[in-house]
Design goal:
With 190 residues, the chain is of the alpha+beta class. 21% of the residues lie in helices and 46% in strands.
């Protein structure tokens, strides 16, 4: 995707330079948003529950194909949603989670054992988390994560920690969440 954008950008720049316009001649980078998706899930969870999913950015084609051209980037947004819930022992339309914490840990090979807080919710209506993607307020830790990714830390795990329900312990046969971090990468086109 970035290489295609780069080719189009270079062609447009050459056309404009050839026609006497120099407005684009100083541009050497293009912003490319990439969604990093993780899906923490569990079979037969008992809430409270911690679910985890890990990712290697090299498995994301747009990132892997162009990582040598990436010069910078910034976190645009984080969203989270419970996307699948099967056979709950509670009523999801009335249940309330005391807490929902979203954290990230880098692969141990980087020597960084810090747990980065991506975002937290308290007294969250389960139906809100299950109904549609929620915007997660961006924390300083989340911004630090992007800086570390840009420095080459491409493997990490995200955990969704579902606190107890206000009504007490609960269970289900399956629980799956979806966390999406949209990062605007800055890539060199020349």
């Amino acid at each position: 995707m970035i290489r295609t954008l780069a080719s189009l950008f270079v062609a447009a720049a050459l056309l404009m330079v050839g026609s006497g316009c120099d407005a684009i001649t100083d541009a050497t980078t293009v912003d490319v948003p990439i969604d990093i998706k993780v899906y923490p899930q569990s079979i037969n969870p008992t809430i409270p529950q911690i679910d985890e999913d890990c990712v290697d950015l090299n498995t994301i084609k747009d990132y892997a194909d162009n990582k040598d051209m990436i010069e910078g980037g910034s976190l645009q947004r984080i969203t989270f949603q419970i996307t699948d819930l099967q056979d709950p022992s509670f009523n999801p339309s009335t249940a309330v989670l005391r807490t929902l914490d979203l954290t990230l840990e880098f692969d141990a090979s980087y020597g960084d054992s810090k747990v980065y807080n991506l975002g937290s919710f308290t007294d969250l209506a389960f139906a809100t988390a299950y109904g549609a993607p929620m915007t997660v307020p961006v924390t300083d830790d989340a911004k630090a994560v992007i800086t570390k990714i840009l420095a080459g830390r491409e493997k990490f795990c995200v955990k969704a920690s579902y606190g107890p329900l206000t009504s007490g312990p609960a269970s289900a046969s399956f629980l799956k969440g979806a966390l999406i971090m949209t990062v605007k990468f800055e890539a060199s086109v020349l």
